[in-house]
Specification:
By secondary structure, the chain is α+β, with helices and mostly antiparallel strands. It has 9 helices and 8 strands.
Length: 251
C-alpha cells in the first residue's frame, strides 16, 4: 500500500503502525480529519480507519468533536507536534465558559494573544439586562485587556522584548517596568482591566495553560463596574481562576 501524502511504508514495516503514523502526520498537518478522509487517504476500509483513530483517541493523540471529526489530542501537544486551532479552543472552552456564566451571571470571553493584541474568540453574554455584549472577533491592546495581560505575563523577558521590539507600550516607562508589572500579575494569578479599555467596564482574566505549561488562552469575565467594584474583584477572580485551572486540566 502507498500513501501519496505521507510516503510509502518501509519494507518489512507493520502496515498498521505505518497507517497510524500516517494519520498522526495528517492530524498534525491538517488539524482536522474525518473518518471518510482517513479511510481514503490510507486506502483502507472505514472500519479499519475507525479502529486506528479510536486507538489514537484512546492514547490521547486525537480527540473527537461534536461534528465527529478528529483533531490533534493532548499527547500531540505535549510532544510539541501541533498547535491548537481557534475552533478547538472554543469547543474545549465552551462548557467552562457556560459554567462561569452560570456562577457569576456576567459575560465571559475566550481570549488569545496575536502579537500585541488580545483577540476575542468567543463570548457568552451575561444574564442581566445591563451587560457587556459579545466581543467575538474584536481585538484590544494586550497590555490593557485583562486576558492580554495574563497572556503577556507568561512570557520571558526576551519573549516580551520580541513582542515589543520598538519599546514598551504606552503607560510603561520601559520594558523592564512592563516586566515588573507582569510579574505582579503572575504572582496574583489573574489580571484586572479596570476601565482601561472602556469606561464603566471592569474585567478580570486568568490564563489557561497547555500541558507543556505555556499559556495558550485566557478566560475573562467582564461586567459593568457598578456590579464589579474593587471589593468584588477578588471573589470573582477566585471563581475564575478555579475554572481556568479546570480547563487547563482538560487540555
Amino acid at each position: 500500500m502507498k500513501n501519496s501524502a505521507n510516503g510509502s511504508p518501509a519494507p518489512g514495516s507493520l502496515e498498521s503502525v505505518d497507517n497510524a503514523l500516517s494519520l498522526l502526520l495528517t492530524l498534525r498537518q491538517e488539524g482536522r480529519l474525518r473518518l471518510s478522509d482517513a479511510a481514503d487517504s490510507l486506502g483502507v476500509a472505514r472500519s479499519t480507519a475507525h479502529r486506528l483513530l479510536t486507538t489514537l483517541r484512546n492514547r490521547g493523540f486525537a480527540v473527537q468533536g461534536e461534528d465527529k471529526a478528529y483533531r490533534p489530542g493532548p499527547a500531540l501537544y505535549r510532544l510539541g507536534m501541533s498547535q491548537r486551532t481557534d475552533y478547538e479552543l472554543i469547543e474545549t472552552a465552551r462548557p467552562y465558559m457556560l459554567r462561569l456564566n452560570e456562577e457569576l451571571g456576567e459575560t465571559v470571553h475566550l481570549v488569545v494573544r496575536s502579537g500585541t493584541q488580545a483577540r476575542f474568540l468567543h463570548s457568552v453574554e451575561g444574564v442581566h439586562a445591563l451587560r457587556v455584549s459579545t466581543r467575538a472577533g474584536a481585538s484590544l491592546p494586550a497590555h490593557l485587556a485583562s486576558g492580554g495581560k495574563v497572556l503577556l505575563a507568561g512570557l520571558s523577558a526576551q519573549e516580551l522584548a520580541d513582542v515589543y521590539p520598538s519599546g514598551p507600550p504606552e503607560g510603561h516607562a520601559d520594558l523592564a517596568a512592563l516586566h515588573r508589572f507582569l510579574a505582579g500579575v503572575r504572582r496574583a494569578g489573574y489580571a484586572v482591566n479596570r476601565e482601561d479599555t472602556e469606561r464603566g467596564i471592569t474585567a478580570v482574566g486568568a490564563a489557561v495553560h497547555e500541558p507543556g505549561g505555556r499559556a495558550v488562552a485566557a478566560l475573562t469575565v467582564s461586567a459593568p463596574t457598578l456590579r464589579l467594584p474593587r471589593s468584588q474583584v477578588e471573589p470573582a477572580a477566585e471563581v475564575l481562576t478555579a475554572v481556568a485551572r479546570s480547563m487547563t486540566e482538560a487540555l
